[in-house]
Specification:
- This protein has 125 residues and is an alpha+beta fold.
- The protein has one domain: Cytidine Deaminase, domain 2 (3-Layer(aba) Sandwich).
- The chain contains four helices and five strands, in the order αββαβαββα.
- The chain has a five-stranded mixed beta sheet.
- The structure holds tetrahydrodeoxyuridine.
- Tetrahydrodeoxyuridine binds next to helix 2.
- Tetrahydrodeoxyuridine (THU) binds next to helix 2.
């Protein structure tokens, strides 16, 4: 799957975000090793602490559908180079320690990185 296409899917998913509190919609598109793509959006809650980020929604959806091998995730938000939060980095590392990450920008370009770069010396049990 082409990087631009994965980012386009993240962007498209972003329109389905439920972010009435932060007004910061985020979309993610997770490329699985079998070639399928699972999207996620942030889903917020009026009760503090119950919101979920787009990246974790995508991973949890995929795992719950029986997918276990992940290649790449694209993330899209309204500000520059959407960076996965610390909690998402830990979850991404758990399920895909070799994951590539594309952090999209509103103008269409993106920054390419890896989970190993974003979460060096990660905790493992
Ligand atoms: N958020 C994500 O979904 N992914 C990120 O990478 C950063 C932050 C969400 C969480 C919350 O709903 C909103 O963006 C503002 O923090």
């Amino acid at each position: 799957m082409d990087d631009r296409e994965l980012l386009r899917l993240a962007n498209e998913a972003r329109r389905r975000a439920y972010a009435p509190y932060s007004k910061f919609p985020v979309g993610a598109a997770l490329l699985c090793a079998d070639g399928t793509v699972v999207t996620g959006v942030n889903v917020e809650s009026s009760v503090n602490g119950l919101s979920l980020c787009a990246e974790r929604v995508a991973v949890f959806k995929a795992v719950s559908e029986g997918k276990r091998d992940f290649v790449k995730i694209a993330v899209s938000c309204d500000s520059d180079h959407c960076r996965p939060c610390g909690a998402c980095r830990q979850v991404l590392y758990e399920h895909a320690p070799n994951l590539e990450i594309l952090m999209g920008c509103p103008k269409g370009d993106f920054v390419r990185t890896t989970i190993a770069e974003l979460l060096p010396d990660a905790f493992t049990l």
